[in-house]
Amino acid sequence: MYLIFPSFVFRSLNCAGSVRSAQAMKSRQDGSSLYSVVLLVAANLLIPVALFTFATGFFPYKPFLPGLAQYSDVSEYGPPPSPPFDRLVFMVVDALRR
Q1: 28: closest CA among 45, 8, 53?
Q2: Domain boundaries, the chain
Q3: Cβ-contact 15, 28 below 8 angstroms
Q4: What is the predicted pLDDT for the residue at 38?
Q5: Which of 11, 13, 23, 41 is the most buried (most CB within 10 A)?
Q6: In angstroms, how far apart are the furthest CA atoms of the chain?
Q7: Do the Cβ atoms of 8 and 21 come closer than 8 Å?
Q8: Whether the model pTM is above 0.90
Q9: Considering only 12-16, 65-69, 77-81, 93-97, which range has the smallest mean pLDDT?
Q10: CB under 8 Å to 12, separation ≥6 — which residues?
């Protein structure tokens, strides 16, 4: 049975340079952990910015217009046409259930 290990594991298992490779591995770990911490902080700072950007685009601002709505006279266009149907039926089909 063969096991596949990364190359730094073999370097740390080497008896001749075990101290040196352990120090190199530790410095590599510190650098990568600092890098991952910086990426984690940057991602956590960008999440509220992304949510705010999405919310302003998806829920646009509706300006408030003061005053009351007024009915304008539409008698110049004639009487409204009669409806072609007596009733209106809304049908909801829920096809997502099993």
Answers
A1: 8
A2: 7-60
A3: no
A4: 92
A5: 11
A6: 102
A7: yes
A8: no
A9: 12-16
A10: 18, 21, 22, 25
